[in-house]
Design goal:
mainly alpha, ABC transporter involved in vitamin B12 uptake, BtuC
Length: 362
């Protein structure tokens, strides 16, 4: 029987691989135009980001942040919402985390202080996502428009507030350094091979978040309502799902996850709130959700890929001066292009190939 739709293994695995390969081929062509060997450059990148233990630790450190932003975008997508405000939600989440640290780091032990900071990050991120969710659910304002505008508002607000947090006598636009009790435990204490890297327990928390996401979306009644709303809001409404409530809750959860992405960067590395600390992680979360097809394993692998591009790209630009660091921002853009706007580019040809194969076997 002739298939009219691609099977799940094709949409969930084959298409993302084809899109990724297409992006890498175009990137290789650009590297060739820059006067360097694409294969040699790829080998250096792979060795630096995956093979070398310290490089792998940095890759996983970056991936820890990206998992949370990828989950933030994915949760919204499950409800049919395109939350492109994870960058601003992560930024404001960092503010909530910092306020908790500044208030309690001199009084609370680490086992209470770090959870308090995480609660602050999740709460502020969720609150920043609430209004776009409410406007979408109750007023019909498109969440894409409201969330992208909230990114700009968050950036302006944080610029103003961070200036107020600069300690007396300092010029760096950042808050004071938190006490040592606020530092996340590093994984190199258990695995010395990781070297002097910032990889911390937030990586384990990110893995736990992936497992929880899997259970919540596919093994709970809330997840069923979430997916039903995303697939067909009208049908879900007639089935008894409260659409407005589902949308608002989805955006609250999405914002909370984006806010939690700030924990790895602040408590795991800098130990203070700095200007523009998200560094595009919220926007990378969009690419991760698209490339990972909102699947926990796909989100994990996509996060590792983008972490490897950052870590390997930094070392590659040092070894190959002809390849500037900005090249890897371009590669990230290519991946977003092929996995987002052109995600079904190969679908017709792949469907035709599957039907031809099935016909021959029959």
């Amino acid at each position: 029987m002739k298939k009219t739709e691609l099977p799940r293994w094709a949409t969930g695995f084959v298409l993302p691989i084809l899109n990724l390969l297409s992006a890498l081929i175009v990137a290789g062509f650009v590297i060739h135009l820059l006067g360097e060997s694409p294969t040699e450059s790829l080998a250096i990148l792979f060795d630096s980001a995956i093979v070398n233990p310290e490089g792998l630790a940095y890759t996983m450190f970056y991936a820890s942040t990206f998992i949370f932003t990828g989950l933030a975008v994915s949760i919204a997508m499950q409800a049919g919402l395109f939350n492109i405000g994870a960058e601003g939600q992560m930024y404001v989440g960092g503010l909530g985390l910092t306020l908790a640290m500044l208030a309690f780091d001199a009084h609370l032990p680490g086992w209470l202080l770090i959870p308090a900071g995480m609660v602050g990050a999740a709460l502020f991120g969720a609150l920043w996502a609430f209004l776009p969710g409410y406007l979408q659910a109750k007023r019909g304002s498109h969440v894409v428009v409201t969330t992208i505008m909230f990114n700009f508002i968050a950036a302006s607000l944080m610029n103003y507030l961070i200036i107020k947090m600069i300690p007396v006598g300092e010029q760096n636009p950042a808050s004071r350094v938190f006490s040592s009790a606020a530092e996340l435990p590093l994984l190199n204490a258990w695995f010395p091979v990781l070297g002097d890297t910032p990889l911390n327990i937030c990586f384990l928390l990110a893995i736990a978040a992936l497992v929880l996401y899997r259970f919540a979306v596919w093994r709970s009644s809330w997840g069923y309502k979430l997916r039903a709303t995303g697939l067909n809001a009208h049908a879900a409404h007639y089935a008894g799902v409260r659409i407005s409530r589902t949308i608002i809750v989805a955006m609250l959860v999405s914002g909370a996850l984006a806010g939690l992405a700030s924990v790895n960067s602040i408590l795991g590395s800098t130990h203070y709130l700095s200007l523009n600390f998200p560094a595009g992680a919220g926007f990378i979360g969009i690419a991760i959700a698209l490339m990972g097809r909102q699947n926990p394993l796909g989100i994990f692998l996509s996060s590792v890929l983008f972490g490897a591009l950052i870590q390997g790209g930094f070392d590659l630009s040092l070894e190959k001066p002809n390849i500037p660091q900005e090249t890897f921002i371009f590669i990230q853009g290519l991946i977003i292009l092929f996995c987002g706007a052109m995600e079904n580019f190969y679908a017709p040809a792949l469907l035709k190939l599957i039907n031809l194969t099935s016909k021959k076997e029959a």
